[in-house]
Amino acid sequence: MFGKKKETPQIDKDQLELIETAQKRIKQKKRLYAHFVVFLIGAVFLIVANLVLNIGKDVTFFGINWFVFAILAWLFLFIYHVFNVFVTSKLLSKKWEEDQLNKLVEKQKTRIAQLQQQVDKEYPLATEKKRPLTTSKKSEITLIVAAGENDAIGKDNQLIWHLSDDLKRFKELTNGHHIIMGRKTFESFPKPLPNRTHIVISRQDNYQVPSGVILVNNLEDAFDAAKADKQPFVIGGGEIYKQAMPYADKIELTRVHEDFEADTFFPKIDSTIWKESQNRYHAKDEKHTHAFSFITYERL
């Protein structure tokens, strides 16, 4: 009540930028209108000066009175002003520059990821070996993922497709289990998934997670936190899959039969280490925009 300080309305950065841009556009259009008025007055003055006051009456170019060329030159300047206000300023604004830069950065990220995949394919690293964990591991660690033919799994921390049967399979397989993920994957969920124990890996100090979610600093601690589960699932993202691959016993893969533009990829599956034990094909239909297969791999 009394003595309570009145709250000052806050304007976020985006709103402030919109206001400043609108104010700038208004000033530009006011100057353009003033230029138009001055142009009309000036043109009339030049005509009167020549035809009524006889100023420069005998000056002509190619048989045409000089004031016609003066008016045309001024008209050209006015048209340039119009173009600058309605075309150039809009196209070459700061926001336009930022949008173009962001598009270029995204293209470069995608290109780098594609080159990395090509390098990994043409010059593979030494054969993957399963490393022993310092903690006892009695669980069957399973990687579960949906990936395109080019191993694409996501872009901008989002799935590239929506396949309802794949989501149902994910729910069925992971229901009642521990699911291990990186921070970005966890943040892509609107809220924690029901009936699963979430284990989030993050190196950020003071990172906050909801009640019931387990926070660890590395993959080994994540496996240790899930040791009571006979089959914990690793659900992403790309770097977590890469780290977990040497420890995994099984891969539950949804192979989407198409190449996709992405910035996150699943590691290559080495056929000398993994054998395919199940493969179920699903054709494209009204509910699924891409054909896909449910494939299970087991470590040899």
Write the layout of secondary structure elements.
Elements: H1 13-51, E1 60-61, E2 64-65, H2 66-91, H3 94-122, E3 142-148, E4 152-154, H4 164-174, E5 178-182, H5 183-187, E6 197-201, E7 214-216, H6 219-225, E8 233-236, H7 238-244, E9 250-256, E10 264-265, E11 274-282, E12 292-299
Parallel strand pairs: 3-8, 3-9, 5-6, 5-8, 6-7
Antiparallel strand pairs: 1-2, 4-10, 9-12, 11-12
Helix pairs in contact: 1-2
Word description of this protein:
Helix 1 (13-51) packs antiparallel against helix 2 (66-91). This protein is α/β, with parallel strands linked by helices and 300 residues long. Strand 5 (178-182), helix 5 (183-187) and strand 6 (197-201) form a beta-alpha-beta unit. It has 2 domains: 13-92; 142-299, Dihydrofolate Reductase, subunit A. It is elongated. It contains 7 helices and 12 strands. It is 41% helix and 19% strand. Strands 7-6-5-8-3-9-12-11 form an 8-stranded mixed beta sheet, sandwiched between helices. A two-stranded antiparallel sheet has the order 1-2. It has a two-stranded antiparallel ribbon with strand order 4-10. The protein has helices spanning 13-51, 66-91, 94-122, 164-174, 183-187, 219-225, 238-244, and strands at 60-61, 64-65, 142-148, 152-154, 178-182, 197-201, 214-216, 233-236, 250-256, 264-265, 274-282, 292-299.
